[in-house]
Specification:
Layout lengths: L18 E5 L3 H12 L3 E5 L3 H20 L5 H9 L1 E4 L10 E4 L5 H12 L7 E4 L6 H5 L8 E5 L9 E6 L5 H13 L3 E6 L6 H17 L5 H11 L6 H8 L1 H15 L8 H8 L12 E3 L4 E4 L3
Parallel strand pairs: 1-2, 1-4, 2-3, 4-5, 5-6, 7-8
Antiparallel strand pairs: 6-7, 9-10
């Protein structure tokens, strides 16, 4: 953590963050855009694909409508939040952003490329945060002209429900930027924790270990996916079992993270089980493909795939 680099930090700690750019309108990106808009920030939601952008906006509208239906928000709240979101496919539209949160797939090259592109259109004070769940913030920041402005903001799925935000501090991240993103997270009604930049941070190392062991138990016939999930929900008070959560995150995402952690940490706990590799190769990626450890309809898990 770099709190006094001898070089004046370009991020002005007295300037409030008003506009947030979100890179990617997928599951995590549209969720981040939604909670930012509900918190009153101006949001620029950017995706390179028009259809992905449209699907992201539809998901936001559906989530907000459900909030109104459940009495958690008013119709006026919903309309105000939607008015704060500006969808775009143009990178140059991010120029007004005070904070950019990247929510692209877990590829170091891709995230570094997005960082370089963003720096080309944003002001020097703009903070750049990655939503990565496992990749090194320090490694991502190696491509930055201003590495002191690069930080991790790891949200959890579904973003509009899960309260945790893991703030990951890279080797050169400036303290003023840590303070700024912590304040943003709290404005979004999230509970931020600050962790050092180590493989898997805190949450992924614990969560992935549990998820992979649950998969091995299914593979070995110890119990059904539903019963394993029920054990963790009722026996340990987890709000959601590890296999249902894997379906929501995406089996392909879990496989990528497990491979990364296994290569970095060398622990057999992170070696992907064969059942995970097989299901990904079969296109059973979880909710987004309609089937993973559960079969999914539009809104919920229904008949189980692995009994």
């Amino acid at each position: 953590m770099n709190t006094d680099s001898g070089e004046k930090n370009l991020a002005d700690s007295t300037a409030p963050i008003r506009t947030i750019g979100v890179l990617g309108a997928g599951t995590m990106g549209h969720g981040i855009a939604q909670v930012a808009a509900v918190a009153g920030f101006e949001v620029i939601l950017r995706d390179v694909d028009e259809s992905s952008l449209a699907r992201g906006m539809q998901s936001i509208e559906r989530n907000l409508a459900k909030g109104v239906q459940l009495g958690k928000a008013t119709a006026e709240d919903r309309e105000q939040a939607l008015a704060h979101i500006n969808p775009t496919v143009e990178l140059r539209d991010l120029k007004a952003a005070d904070l950019i949160i990247e929510a692209a797939p877990e590829s170091l090259d891709l995230k570094q490329s997005l960082l370089r592109e963003s720096e080309g259109v944003t002001s020097p004070h703009c903070i750049w945060a990655s939503n990565t769940s496992s990749l090194s913030i320090t490694e991502i920041a190696r491509s930055a002209a201003r590495p002191q402005n690069v930080i991790g903001m790891h949200f959890f799925n579904p973003v509009h429900i899960m309260r945790l935000v893991e703030i990951v501090v890279g080797a050169q991240t400036d303290q003023t930027n840590i303070n700024a993103v912590r304040a943003v997270a709290r404005s979004m009604k999230k509970e931020p924790i600050v962790v050092r930049d180590v493989p898997g941070f805190a949450s992924s190392r614990l969560g992935v270990t549990l998820g992979l062991e649950a998969m091995r138990m299914v593979e070995q016939g110890v119990a059904s996916a539903r019963d394993i999930d029920t054990a963790m929900e009722l026996g340990y008070n987890h709000p959601m079992g590890p296999l249902r959560l894997t379906d929501l995150v995406g089996l392909d995402v879990r496989l990528s993270i497990a491979e990364y952690l296994h290569s970095k940490l060398g622990s057999e706990a992170f070696r992907p089980p064969e059942i995970l590799r097989r299901m990904v190769s079969q296109g059973k990626l979880g909710k987004k493909s309609g089937e993973g450890f559960y079969k999914w309809n539009e809104h919920e898990a229904s008949q189980k795939a692995y009994t």
